Amino acid sequence: ICLPYGCNTFHVHSQQIKSDKIFTGEVIYMLEGPGVDQDPKGLFEIDEKTGWIKSKMPLDREKHKSFKLKAFALSPSGERLESPTTIEIYVLDQNDHRPEFTQKEFVGTIPEFSVPGTSVMQVTAIDSDDPMTENAALSYFIVGQESIPPHSINKTMFGINNKTGVIYTRDVGLDRDVVQSFKLTLQVADMSGMGLTSTGRAIIHISDINNHAPKFHPTMYNMNAMENKNIAELGRVNATDKDQKGGDNWKIKYTIVNPSGHFAIRTDPVSNQGIISVAKPLDYESQAEYRLIVKAENEVRLKSPYEQIHSATVTVRVMNENEAPVFYKNPIKVTVAESIVPGTVLVSDIAHDPDNSKFEIIQDPESWLAINHATGQITAKRSFNIRSPHVRNNIYSAIVKITLFSDADGISATATLEVSLWETNDYPPVLIPLSGTVCSDQDRDKLGLLLSAVDEDMSPQADPFTFYIGDQNVAANWTIITLNETHAVLHPLIDIEKGEFSIPVVVSDSGSPSLSSNALVNVTVCPCDSFGDCKSYTAAIFGTKMGISFIALMIIMGCIALLLFLIVLAVAVNGCTRQNIRKGGGLLVGVSDDDIRDNVFHYDEQGGGEEDEDAFNIDFLRNPRDMVPPPASFFPQNCSLPRGKQPLRKDAPHNLPSPTYPRKPPGDPTDIEDFINVGLDAADNDPNVPPYDTALIYDYEGDGSVAGSLSSIASMGSDVDQDYDYLNDWGPRFKKLANMYDPR
């Protein structure tokens, strides 16, 4: 069912419905849905008897375009006779709305001298009527044109597309120098231009393009400049541009075509003039006049092919003044190697050199420099040292002075000389440490001795360091693994349980040329305790560089062990002699068994060295002559030295096998020196003997001892009857004993 939009007639019959049940009885019609019993309510009704659907009030298509209703056929008792019927009612549109522009005023811009057909902008309008009908079919028109300034252009310059509303240029002649903008009156109409209408307005501005080159007025300029001065504004040159003032096309960029380095030019952003300045002080004696060519051009590229770039000539005259000597540079910078050869020229021609002037260095803390007083040439007096306290950030500073004697006041000038020093490779690296311990009971990947190096040079003449083993034979068992630029690890390639090794190591720096040094690294391989130290002191003694050396220590230990051995030997000989001596025989004659005066007791006393005689003289040697060694025949096969519990040595590993000692005494008493030396050598290398500074401890003999006391040893004859000259043949170790029995 279609009803006209905006229908003003009430109770318009739009549609009639009928049921087939009217032939069998009375039928009552009912209607429900939007517009009946749902919002918007009360728009439609139905005649219960005839089934005519009627509108009760005017309809507005812009609010409700259609309605979907349901019609029912009921018996008088209210029973449905048939299934409900769906009825759709469409509201037909009427042209009751005017089209309206979307903006009150449209604004657009177009460059000057645009060609015809150039799009400027698009205007739009809307119509509330049905867009599917002619009621909303819009057409656009330009009904008026006004130029600004007024009447500058009278011809029609713009057109509009009736369908799309796009405004475009129709003619040539858009010159911004003539006209700046246009005001257009617009009209829009529905029904394809035949219906309702509305009006609007559009403003079109003409934008500037760079079609004018700047021009100088005048083209010749004269300026004066005082020498030896930086002048921020020496003078101005003027060029004008006809493009829009303040715009990008109006801005002028000035350039000095023939720059000498003394002058610069910049643009005043307000006046667009060029400001010439003196960037580098002028020297009247060097050049008294300069002729500059200055050109002016826009920052934006010129679009007019027939316009040319203009230029102007500026003449600058230098004014002379009675000035002090002037250094060309201040500070004067020089870069040299620290190990420069004395006499090398560092710099020359450092200042303007008028007549009657003198150069001198007034500050040179290290006295490294020399200067020619006439020419100002500076040379190195001696090599530099970059580690000097007067060198900061690798720069050594001195002050140079020039004095002009031609002036009555002796005018002078000073400048700073900055000598930048670069490091040279003067010192080889030194390996550290030179000794250390490698724990053999650690994991294989943790074995090694950490090595490093120190270099008096600085980077880049120092680290990174390179470490390597200097002997190929040693390199088969040891290697060096680099950790970083300054450290490496000396690592064994084979399994080593213990031992002392001297590894030749070479370390070199990264200088140019590279320098290196050799060193022997004493490495002790041993099992370690929880603190990482060897379980004995042998490695520490061997590897240390402090105090007494290992060889000297062994000699001292040997001497002390020899002295102890002689004392023990004397005691043992005395005990054995008392059992085997016969009356009238042998070198020494024992005393009666009843003449046992003393027994050896255990005193916690220690002795050592040849000068320490009191310890044993007090307790078990009554007569110094008791130390006379017995002949070899007094050593019975069953004689043994009684020994108590001895202290343990801490300078050697425990539980190591002892070397073989001589078991039989020599048959000839004159060979006792060799016998003692063999025993002494075995004792020196025996890790189980007591420390060299420990006295031997003997067990208490008791009353029933078969051996006599030390005090019982006596000579069977007088000293005069004995010949002790053979003691002089036993060497320097028995010299003191031989002196005691010297018959002289």
Automatic annotation (TrEMBL):
Residues annotated as region Disordered?
645-669
Q: What is its main location?
A: other
* Domain of life the protein comes from: Eukaryota
User: What's in the keyword line of the UniProt record?
Assistant: Calcium, Cell adhesion, Cell junction, Cell membrane, Glycoprotein, Membrane, Metal-binding, Repeat, Transmembrane, Transmembrane helix
Give one GO biological process term.
cell migration involved in gastrulation
Query: What residue intervals traverse the membrane?
Result: 550-573
**Which InterPro entries would you find in this protein's record?**
Cadherin, Cadherin-like_dom, Cadherin-like_sf, Cadherin_CS, Cadherin_Y-type_LIR, Catenin-bd_sf
Q: Where in the cell is it found?
A: Cell junction, Adherens junction; Cell membrane
Among SUPFAM superfamilies, the record links this protein to: Cadherin-like
The molecular function terms in GO held by this entry are:
beta-catenin binding; cadherin binding; calcium ion binding
What role is this protein assigned?
A: Cadherins are calcium-dependent cell adhesion proteins.
Q: Could you tell me what this protein is called?
A: Cadherin 15, type 1, M-cadherin (myotubule)
- Source species, please? Cyprinus carpio (Common carp)
